Amino acid sequence: MPPKGIKKAAKAVKKGEPLSFQYPRVTGNPLKFGAHVGMAGGISNAVTNAMNIGANSFALFVKSPRKWVSPDIKDEEAKKFIDLCEKYGYNTRTDVLPHGTYFINLANPDEAKEAQSYNAFVDELKRCEKLNIGLYNFHPGSALNGSRPDALKQLAKNINRAIKETSFVKIIIENMAGHGNLIGSTLQDIRDVIDMVEDKSRVGVCVDTCHSFAAGYDLSDQDKFDEFWKQFDTVIGPEYLCAIHLNDSKAPLGANRDLHQKLGYGFLGLEVFRIIANTERLQNLPIILETPVGDDDSVYGEEIKLLEWLQNKPKDDTEYLTKLEELYKLGSKERAEQLKKFESKVAKNEKAASKKRSGSDISSMLTKKTKA
């Protein structure tokens, strides 16, 4: 169901009425805060949906995220999207960050499923180029029950193939939370893939704050934040950073759970987002919110305004400290629930590991006695 603000804007466009937007957009801000917006009713609607929440960048799906195959984007709709971006001052090459369909897995060891994923992947890249979009973000996939080194090679192979089938769109690899056999939960995974990409001008990285935290990279204060970027620069390289996904985390540090939360409600807390709002190296990159909004897109508008409010706010500002405490309290119930689940999982894993060690010790003793 489309959010209320989106439906209102869509009706106005259909009637030919002038649009009024719910949240005023602050143009000229070097930090391009935005969000993932809907494109129901036509992909050009994504532009007005972004304007409605005061976004300076935006993400979208370039086809239905629920289908492997979707109808082509009509020429007139593509032109409308490009014209609206120009009208409202969105640079389609740098300010728009489409998200790849979630079920694409270029590392799938099953050949038929790999081919299905690759065809969908290239189709989405070509849709981006039809819309003059310069960036395309996707999840790097999973090795499933296959070999991890082989999965990394297969992923890089498919990226190389896709680059040769397209002209300019840059393929952006998103870091992951690390559950299961997912690729990209370590910075080294991403570096290994980049090393195997032939045209490195056509590949980049999107850092998701929730995924990073869930994978064990703590960003929650200035020292930890700086340490993370020091690791990023050493392992991957600053030249590959192309985008940020901005999410708090419902799950604790290192929980390996991809659970996005509203800013300030989660285990990361508001401080990291104040730091981000004042970090020069993130200027002119699309900084995309993917926090939970339900059917009310105004949440994104509120969070963009919160991020803009955090700019130039010192850590000891009284109003800031009040807001930090207020948001942290609002998320207390969900944090407690997730902490309980995490602690239960850790205890279960430790028990299983202890049992395994005990069994191994007994087996070793029996072997020694037999030999004796």
Automatic annotation (TrEMBL):
Keywords: DNA damage, DNA repair, Endonuclease, Hydrolase, Metal-binding, Nuclease, Zinc. The keyword Cell membrane does not apply. One of its GO terms (molecular function) is DNA binding. Residues 347-372 are annotated as: Disordered. InterPro entries: AP_endonuc_2, AP_endonuc_F2_Zn_BS, Xyl_isomerase-like_sf, Xyl_isomerase-like_TIM-brl. Residues 360-372 have a biased composition (Polar residues). Its cofactor is Zn(2+). HAMAP family: Nfo (MF_00152). This is Apurinic-apyrimidinic endonuclease 1.
